Amino acid sequence: MTTKPIMSERKVSFIGALLVAIGPVSMALYTPAMTEMVAHFNTSESIVKLTLTLYFGGFACAQLIAGPLSDALGRRPVTIAFMLLYCAASVLAMLSQSVEVLIFARFAQGIGASVGVAISRALVRDLFTGEKSSRIMNLIGIILALGPALSPTIGGLMLPVFGWRSIFVLMTVLGFVVIGVTVFAMKETVVRDTSRLNFRALAGSYRMLLTSRRFLTTSFVIGGALGAVYAQATFLPFILMQDVGLSPSQFGLSMLAQSGAFFTGSLLVRRLMTVYGSERIVLPGLMFIAAGSIGTSTLLIWPPSFLHVMLPVALYSFGISFVMPTMSTAALAPFGKMAGAAASLLGFIQMGSGLVVGSIGALIGDALFAMGLLIPMMGAVACTCYWLYCRLPPLQPEPAPTTKASASGMPTAPVMAAPDR
Fold first, then answer.
1. In this structure, what CATH number is given to the domain that contains residue 178?
2. Shortest CA distance to 381 belongs to which of 255, 252, 261, 219?
3. How far is CA 70 from the centre of its chain?
4. How far, in Å, CA of 138 to CA of 127, rounded?
5. 55: left (phi over 0), alpha (psi -120 to 50) or beta
């Protein structure tokens, strides 16, 4: 006998969106201040870029720990513990008197914020599958890609009025909001099982994921698509403020072109999914990503202007909104009993691709050349991996997770379909 999930679709959408927002917001909120920090700490651009690169590193790698920990100890306690670390690191960043302390604080922030992406997707997989899962992933995806686009606007407006330290005050407040929602609104969706805190079992889980063609192809579609947004965050501040000549406030407002395109696309996707289903809208999204990639590649030929830079960025972002919900659902679908580990590895690939490409761009040194070369390559990876995914045999249908409460009041684990190799 099946029962209703212990949290409604709307509630999971809200909590998941809040959890997933903390990482991108923390990554991008202070990007308008990066040029000011060079002068404040009397250091170089490359050193200040490390505050973003190491945040990426902590954020991407710590997901590999956060997800499996939540499988073993529960979603709620792991979320609270990681967010407390995030809040402490935000306070340290606010009080930092040297760039070295700021770099360390940003790395710790990334570790704390990593729990959001892993837990949000695991929550969805614990309770929902199929079209319901895609609808929730659609909303979560809005926040996940909207965050790094909208946050510079907020940071750019705060910077001239309150100074760069105020940005970390806002991050601290956001961290405590997430903790409050976790304590008072989020229900536990897995049974605590400390036997899962086993290196051999964890290695087995990741080995299963890394040998699944379905998981790898869908993950790298997302890595190539959404990872480009995170890579762009390391290029765009310097392109738009140095090459194009925008002020920090103008830069923040200019990023509304990216967030607006994604938001418009996501609203359209919600309507299209009810008519055509989620699977049929992925290919049109990849066509927009391809168009954005081609437009970005022209930065290698013609000098940049605002429209020359941001129109391809907007096209790319519009396409991501079509791709994210279905590919996220497809990546996690076969792995119900290890949803935390699967969501963590998916997030690692997604953020790790942005980290790697952003780091390569930093080594190149020329942000304009790096963006024109590397972002189209990420678009090509997304399109190629989707072509490989379409060649796989269809996944066997799985009963929807029932997630019934046990006698102890805890939900039982959902059924896992056999993963496709």
1. 1.20.1250.20
2. 219
3. 18
4. 16
5. alpha
The domain in which residue 247 lies consists of: 9-185+208-390
Place of tokens 């039982």: 412
* Residue 411 three-state SS: strand
Both tokens of 1, joined, read 């006998």
Unique residue bearing structure tokens 């396409």: 319
Which span out of 51-60, 235-244, 288-297, 334-343 was modeled with the highest average pLDDT? 288-297
Q: Measured between alpha carbons, how far is 399 from 380 in angstroms, rounded to an integer?
A: 35
DSSP letter at 405 equals B
Q: Which tokens hold the place of 366?
A: 């020329």
- Exposed/middle/buried for residue 236 (C-beta within 10 Å: 0-12, 13-18, 19+): buried
- What tens digit of pLDDT does each residue of 61-103 get? 888 888 888 877 888 999 999 999 999 999 998 898 888 898 9
Among 318, 316, 354, 322, smallest CA distance to 27 is for 354
DSSP line for 24-65: HHHHHTTGGGHHHHHHHTT--HHHHHHHHHHHHHHHHHHHHH
The count of residues in the chain is 421
User: How many CB atoms are located within 10 Å of the residue 363 CB?
Assistant: 9
Structurally, the chain folds into a number of domains equal to: 1
Residue 408 lies in a domain: no
